[in-house]
Amino acid sequence: MYVPHEPQTRPLITRFVNLKAGQTLAVTGAGGAYGEYIVQLAKTEGLQVIADASDKDRELVLSLGADIVLPRKKIAKVFANVFQAGSMD
Fold first, then answer.
1. Of 83, 81, 55, the residue nearest 70 (C-alpha)
2. pLDDT tens digits for 8-46?
3. How many CB atoms lie within 10 A of CB 11?
4. 72, 52 contact by CB (below 8 A)
5. Under CATH, which architecture does the 12-85 domain have?
6. Secondary structure (DSSP) of the chain
7. What's the pTM value of the predicted model, to 2 decimals?
């Protein structure tokens, strides 16, 4: 697995999103170039990753370290249910 280590980019997740190891980051479009990058960066920071991807990209996104990969078309409904239940970190 290739994990980018650009010093200016890696801290973006923890500095601007303010997440700590063990917390959860949702990545939409995880099968795209930026999404793939963010999944890998999040995992190097010890974050749990919930991602969405098309069926054809599912295995790729899992191989990059995503903990859960949801079908792209269902992600909005899943997030709506989670936020209503108040179960986000």
1. 55
2. 556 666 666 788 899 998 898 999 988 998 999 899 889
3. 12
4. yes
5. 3-Layer(aba) Sandwich (3.40)
6. ------TTTTTHHHHHS---TT-EEEETTTTSHHHHHHHHHHHHTT-EEEEEE-GGGHHHHHHTT-SEEEEGGGHHHHHHHHHHHT---
7. 0.74
